[in-house]
Sequence to fold (182 residues):
Amino acid sequence: MRTHYTAIMASLTFALTLSACSPSQNWREVTLEGTSLKAQLPCKPDRTTRAVPLGGVPVDLQVVGCESGSAIVAVMTASLQAGADANALLAGWQKATLDNARVPRPLAAEQQQNWHRPGHLPLAASQRIQAKGLRPDGEAVMMDAVWGAVAEGDHVRLVHAVVYDRQIPPEMANTLFEGLKP
Fold:
């Protein structure tokens, strides 16, 4: 799973390196190609797709992300093969994300909550987590992230959205997460 997360972060870093955002907090709706999934982002997003292993199976991970002020904002999605254990894969994705951000665990109850949106599957691993971690350079960073899943015909699509910043305005994360629609 560590390799999976490293590939995701490499994709996100690549996308954000190319970023040329418009003014901070200029919200716009984006559609993730080949899906019905829509998201609201606070700046002009860069896009990338990369094959990554998810549960030992290569999947195409789509990433849309940008920088808004000092925040890094991203939405990622991957379509699973029919019959895949979406809950287990979502839980593994969370663990890899938290491990990479060096978030201390166990998490306190107030740091995590169920995250069930209209049109999303009610999986146990559908969570919102707010935590303090460390960037690769050791600098402290806050993260506010959600993981969920939506049905697409005979298969499931996983969704992950995240904001990283020194301090995250609640309205930024809430707008991002509420704007995720199947």
